[in-house]
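Input sequence (74 aa), recorded before submission:
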Amino acid sequence: MFEKMFNSFIDWFCSIGDSVIITIDSLSFEACLIIGLVALILSIFGYSKGKKIALISPAVYVILQIFLEVWFGV
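Predicted structure, token format:
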């Protein structure tokens, strides 16, 4: 009884985890693109932190994609 309930909980938890990972994978490009463009606009108008963020945003996207591919095979 307990084993069956535990296995159904594990199956439910894994399905939720899969959907979360797929959502992160599909939305990470848009988020990094928007943040990078805003930072680029800020750096054009002289905001010094915008330059750092504009350079880091593509690197964060690449690292996130490598992590998702290696760890989850997405």
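Checked by second reader. The CA atoms of residues 14 and 74 lie 14 Å apart.
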